[in-house]
């Protein structure tokens, strides 16, 4: 196997090990430094290449381990554990090894909307990248972390167009830990938390206590494009009735808010739910269409390549949010 392939294997293996197991980062970094030193000191090409491969694997493991730690124990979870313990809501067990349903609040959270709001059966779901928390005593705390909040009340559905990705948001919320399952055969508790992608859940009692501020111009432009696309899809596919428009919106811009719950379950049972999630297939089709259009306008391969890269990056930014989108565009 060529040296380049060994580098790819080492990168993937190190990242998988760092994400799967709680490695001790100081020891992993020490191993990376030792391997890099051996690579510099090695007098034979084979030994030098072997030491470089080991160094790459160790660096990848350290990077993935740091990301794992940041996902499982971000500052907001540390603040939550300390606050719950101080208030006597529960014992002082480490935040990421307990599943007791405890809550803190109401507190004032401030951050940025990570995704467009989604209406569910009886509430509206917001995903917020929290930056600061003001507790009940008025103290301000830096507490980075992602929170999934549910806004109750009849007014929430009328604010969907205001709650779009990239806008600043402040709200009074009650925070609690997401539930995890102890059933035999299910993934470990850490694996469940990593798959969920949010640090805490929150309940917001009314849309009246949610205040938004405009985001950066590029976020506002992307939001305006998504709104225009939704309106166009509704106008074009409303005569067809059923779930046609909702399916088109899910495939085109990743908006699954309009999908019926029964339809989602049927797709999951059939193993075809991935069809309505933006992934490599969607991006490949867009790339093919862009290639056709750009090749009709210019014969320069370099210009076509640059234009396609710019267009795909813009599409990924407009759609945004999911890891499958970022992976496919990359």
Q: Top keywords for this entry?
A:
330 residues, alpha+beta, five-stranded mixed β-barrel, 11 helices, 16% strand, globular
**Major beta-sheet overview:** 5 strands, mixed, barrel
The low-confidence parts are: 89-101
Helical residue percent band: 40-55%
| Overall geometry | globular
Give the spatial strand order of the biggest sheet: 1-3-4-6-5
Note the total helix count. 11
Strand content: 15-25%
Describe it:
With 330 residues, the protein is α+β, with helices and mostly antiparallel strands. It has helices spanning 3-20, 25-41, 45-72, 75-86, 189-196, 217-237, 244-253, 261-270, 280-297, 301-319, 323-329; strands at 103-113, 118-119, 124-134, 140-151, 168-176, 200-204, 210-213. A five-stranded mixed beta barrel has the order 1-3-4-6-5. Strand 3 and strand 4 form a beta hairpin. Helix 1 packs parallel to helix 3 (45-72), helix 6 (217-237) runs antiparallel to helix 7 and helix 9 runs antiparallel to helix 10 (301-319). It is globular and about 70 Å long.
What would you say about this model in short?
The chain is 51% helix and 16% strand. It is globular.
Write the layout of secondary structure elements.
Layout lengths: L2 H18 L4 H17 L3 H28 L2 H12 L16 E11 L4 E2 L4 E11 L5 E12 L16 E9 L12 H8 L3 E5 L5 E4 L3 H21 L6 H10 L7 H10 L9 H18 L3 H19 L3 H7 L1
Parallel strand pairs: 4-6
Antiparallel strand pairs: 1-3, 1-5, 2-3, 3-4, 5-6, 5-7
Helix pairs in contact: 1-3, 2-3, 6-7, 9-10, 9-11
């Amino acid at each position: 196997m060529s040296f380049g392939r060994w580098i790819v294997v080492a990168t993937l293996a190190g990242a998988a090990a760092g994400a799967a197991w709680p490695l001790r980062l100081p020891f992993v970094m020490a191993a990376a430094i030792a391997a890099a030193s051996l690579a510099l000191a090695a007098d034979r090409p084979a030994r030098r290449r072997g030491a470089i491969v080991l160094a790459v694997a160790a660096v990848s493991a350290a990077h993935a381990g740091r990301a794992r730690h940041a996902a499982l124990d971000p500052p907001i979870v540390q603040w939550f554990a300390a606050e719950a313990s101080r208030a006597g809501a529960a014992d002082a067990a480490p935040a990421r090894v307990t599943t007791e349903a405890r809550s803190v609040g109401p507190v004032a959270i401030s951050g940025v909307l990570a995704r467009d709001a989604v209406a569910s059966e009886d509430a509206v779901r917001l995903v917020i990248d929290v930056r600061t928390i003001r507790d009940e005593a008025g103290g301000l705390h830096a507490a980075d972390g992602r929170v999934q909040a549910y806004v109750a009340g009849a007014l929430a559905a009328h604010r969907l167009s205001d709650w779009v990705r990239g806008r600043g948001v402040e709200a009074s919320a009650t925070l609690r830990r997401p539930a995890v399952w102890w059933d035999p055969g299910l993934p470990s508790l850490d694996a469940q938390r990593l798959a969920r992608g949010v640090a805490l859940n929150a309940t917001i009692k009314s849309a009246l206590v949610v205040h938004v501020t405009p985001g950066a111009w590029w976020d506002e432009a992307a939001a305006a494009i998504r709104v225009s696309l939704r309106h166009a899809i509704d106008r074009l596919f409303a005569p067809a009735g059923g779930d046609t428009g909702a399916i088109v919106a899910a495939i085109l811009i990743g908006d699954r808010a309009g999908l019926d719950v029964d339809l989602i379950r049927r797709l999951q049972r059939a193993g075809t739910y991935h069809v309505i999630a933006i992934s490599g297939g969607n991006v490949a089709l867009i790339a093919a269409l862009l290639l056709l259009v750009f090749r009709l306008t210019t014969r320069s391969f370099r210009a076509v390549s640059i234009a396609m890269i710019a267009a795909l990056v813009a599409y990924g930014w407009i759609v945004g949010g999911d890891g499958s989108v970022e992976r496919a565009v990359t």
